[in-house]
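Lab notes, practical 5.
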Amino acid sequence: MNIKTFFPALIASVFLLINASTGYAASITKTLCNPADSDNGYGAGTFNGKFYSWFELSQEDITDCDTKIGFYNETNRHFRVEWNVAQSWGEDAIGGMGWSSGSKDRKIGYNVGQLTTNSSIQKALVAMYGWSCSTSGGNQISQEYYVVDTWDGGKFVPWDENANNGNGAPAQSVGTVSANGATYDVYKVGRYGAQYCFNGSSRSFDQFWSVRRTPRAINGNRNMDFRPHANRWDNSDLGFKVDGLSSGYQILAVEIFGDANLRHKGAADITLWPR
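Output from the prediction step:
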């Protein structure tokens, strides 16, 4: 989540869209766009009893939406995200549906019915995503995590903004984990900025990543178990705080980024169920 300056600020104006001509909008009964009703642009709630979270970062105070998330009023369809971001790399949006309280033992099934982007480099992903918010020795510890199962737009590697003498570079893997019948590369990346835990104040915190070496194909029912990833991050020198999971939310999320080389356009359509 780019509450914390995931990329340096380079912004042009942006605008939005859910286009009724797609045929999807007719069955979407709730939409969210630019939920900047707080200082960090974060919003959450429930739709038909299901928890959702939606965050959008604008490097400038732009009121037009660059992305929009819509929720279906149908039992077997859940949410859709569409975006049309002006040529830049300072925009970020992430959101989806799931649970207001995280669990190490979370098991989900999901189906990505669509994931498209016109960018050729790691600009749209689907992941189990959330926060661990814990207190140890009087210290408040915020940790953000991703289990990236599929993406569109070239090989995906998280960005480490502290590497290369502070100029940023692709993160270096700190190992692997076997889960869901596949191998995931593991990353730990330091961040600084506002975050979900503890009133979102600006502070240093870590991101934990498991990225599947080969993205799952779309248009199929898939399974994901969170426990192997939490164990790998925790039962090592990485220092993941599983005790803080219940104090943070946990969702199946779509995240999209701006692209400095083109106007980034795309869409994702997601169905999610517990196992």
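Observations recorded by the TA: Confidence is low (pLDDT under 50) at residues 2-23. Residues 227-234 form the longest helix (8 residues).
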